Amino acid sequence: MVHFLNLIRWKNILIIVLTQFFVYIFLNADACFYIGHFEPLILVCASTILLAAAGYLINDYSDIRIDVINKPENLIVERYISRRVVLTLHLVFNLAGVIIACLVNYKFGILTVLIAFILWQYSVRFKYHFFVGNMLVSAMMALSLIVIDFASESMLELWVLFYAVFAFLTGLMREIIKDIEDLEGDAVFNAHTLPNTLGIPKTKIVIYYLMLLTLTLLVLSCAYLYYKGYIILPSYLIVATAIPLAIFYQRTISADTKKDFSLLSRMIKLIMLAGVVSMGLRCGML
User: Fold this and answer.
1) Chain centroid to CA 57: how far?
2) How far is residue 181's CA from residue 129's CA, in Å, rounded to a whole number?
C-alpha cells in the first residue's frame, strides 16, 4: 500500500484537493464559508483525485527506463508493482473519474475525458518535447482550480483567475527545475527538455523571466489591494510568496548540483502551498 500511495504521489494529490476545498470555501462570492450543498464539490474532488492518480500511474509506466537512471531509489513500477497492474489501474481510475464527473454535469464529463487524454498524451508523447510537457502539466495545475466552478455557481471569477495564473507560473518553474534534476537520464534518451536543449545556464534565464512575471503579478495585485484599503492579505502575499520567490531565484543562480535543484523544487512547492493558504485571508475582505 505504501508503494502504491507513493506511485500516485499522494502528497501532491492531497495538496490539489486541499486547494480545491480552499477555492470552494474561501473564494465563494456569497460568503466566506459556503455551507450549502457540498455534494458537487465532493464529486469534483473525487474525479480530480482519480484523474491525477491515473496521470501519475501512466507517467511512471512510461518512464521506467529513464527513472532507472534519474531516481533508481524511487523506482516502484516493476520492482514492487507490475506494469500490467499499473496500466490496468490507470484505465480503471480514468473511467471512474469520467463517470463521477458525468454525475456533476455532462460538460464536466466531457472536460475530464479531454484531461485524461491530455495526461496520457503527455506521458507517452509530449513530456520530452521542448517546453510542451512543462506547459501541459502547469496548465493542468491551473485547471484544477478552475474546475471548482462546476461545483458552485457563485465563484469570484477574478480571484480564481489570479490563483490559477499563480499556480500555472509557479508550477511551470517547478517543472523546469525537475527537468534539471533529471538531466542525466533525459540526456541518455535524448529528451528535448529545456535544460537538455538549451543547457542549464539558459534554462536559468527562462526561470528568471517566469519568476519576474510571477513577482509582477503579485506586486500589482498587492498594490491594488493596498489601494483598496486592505492590509492583511497583501502583506501576507509579500512576506510568504514574493520575498521567498526572490530568495528562490538567488539560490537558483548559484545552484549547480542535483541536490541544489532538489532543494529548489521543494522551495517552490512551499511557495505554492503558501499561496493556497492565502485564500483563507480573503475572509477579512468581505
Assistant:
1) 16
2) 17
Helix (H, G, I), strand (E, B) or coil at 18: helix
Enter the C-alpha cell of residue 113: 475525458
CA–CA distances in Å: residue 133 to residues 97, 120, 128, 142:
22, 11, 6, 14
Look at 198 and 130; give whichever has higher pLDDT.
198
Contact 163, 170 (CB under 8 A): no
Cell representation of residue 250: 538567488
pTM of the model: 0.88
Longest Cα–Cα distance in the chain: 58
* Amino acid identity, position 211: M
For 123-162, what is each residue's pLDDT tens digit?
777 777 778 888 888 998 999 998 888 777 665 567 888 9
Residue-by-residue DSSP string for 20-87: HHHHHHHSBSS-SS--S--HHHHHHHHHHHHHHHHHHHHHHHHTHHHHHHH-GGG--BTTTB-HHHHH
Q: 81 - beta bridge partners?
A: 77
Q: Distance of alpha carbon 157 from its chain centroid, rounded?
A: 19
Measure the CA–CA gap between 239 and 234, rounded to whole angstroms. Answer: 9
Contact (CB, 8 A) for 160 and 42: no
CA distances from 132 to 118, 127, 210, 212, 247 (A): 11, 7, 15, 21, 27
Pairwise CA distance, residues 153 & 111, whole Å? 17
Residue 120 and residue 93: Cα distance in Å, rounded? 12
Q: At what angle do helices 39-62 and 132-146 cross, to 10 degrees?
A: 160
C-alpha to C-alpha distance for 22 and 283, rounded to whole angstroms = 11
Paired residues of 220 in beta bridges:
none
Nearest Cα to 27, choosing from 137, 135, 166? 166
Helix (H) or strand (E) holding 274: helix 258-278
Question: Do the beta carbons of residue 86 and residue 56 sit within 8 Å?
Answer: no
